[in-house]
């Protein structure tokens, strides 16, 4: 079989596998959709990793087209986005791009995909964003009512609960919803990346060796930007803007900056645990995650110093890495 015929045959198999996964999801009433979101991109990853993006465009278009016949209307856009993410990741592998940058790109695409799907699916299903917000607000109010009953007549607790209720405006809950969807998309991108690399290695497809995330040095200016965004977020609570649109944009930017610093703060915490406590992977992960919930302010400051200063290089020297392995921050 010549190469051109093999490419077409392999592409047809990929499209057929994609269609079978969508059909299984439809026949099970969408019960497997939570799992399939990590599996749907993999066929396109395998194809693009072998043949590049030029050949993959046709396979992606065929996958998106066949989803019209084997999936529900609310799944069509979702399936097309997942196939596109797989094509991009496979193309990065085909061209042997830096795998850390590829990971960040896939996480960004998954964030955009989640937000787009949230808006489009809400429009198709006839459920507006305001309905989602109202449901979340009702659930939070019920939870706080139960908390107030449990805490009894404690005046301090009652005041705190009333303050929390006053914060739960429609616009605030909408911002929380969007940020949580973005965070879920980033986690989805990370898992898709890891699962795809694992399966490609099992298929004996050449995959560039990923660089440890601890060796990635983000641009130092992003630390200052993240700190300014977080300060802006706190300022909007102390002195809210009169313009509701400006208030919403400022708080979304602030939350994104806060999450950005927290992510690198967790990495810094994991390195500190490895240096001063233990190198057992399970304990390192457990302590790092617990610190995120127990001392988020400390993790935030660690993230700022990790990105902005020499703290990152100091930690890597302590772990035995050569500083020359790190790229110059000015080149990022």
Features:
332 residues, mainly alpha, globular, 0% strand
- Unreliably modeled segments: 325-332
- Can you write the helix and strand succession as a string? HHHHHHHHHHHHH
- Total number of strands: 0
Using only C-alpha atoms, the radius of gyration works out to 23 Å
Mean pLDDT: 78
Structural class determined from secondary elements: mainly alpha
- How widely separated are the two ends? 44 Å
What percent of the residues sit in helical stretches (DSSP H or I)? over 70%
Give the overall form: globular
Largest sheet: none
Number of helices: 13
% residues in beta strands: under 5%
Give the gist of this structure.
The protein is an all-alpha fold. The chain contains 13 helices and no strands. Helix 3 (41-70) packs antiparallel against helix 4, helix 9 (221-238) packs antiparallel against helix 12 and helix 10 (244-276) packs across helix 12.
Topology (elements, then pairings):
Layout: H1 3-27, H2 33-39, H3 41-70, H4 73-94, H5 99-125, H6 129-151, H7 155-167, H8 170-202, H9 221-238, H10 244-276, H11 281-294, H12 296-308, H13 311-318
Write structural notes for this entry.
This protein is mainly α and 332 residues long. Helices cover 80% and strands 0% of the residues. The longest helix is centred in the middle third of the chain and has 33 residues, at 170-202. 29% of the residues are buried. The model is unreliable at 325-332 (pLDDT under 50).
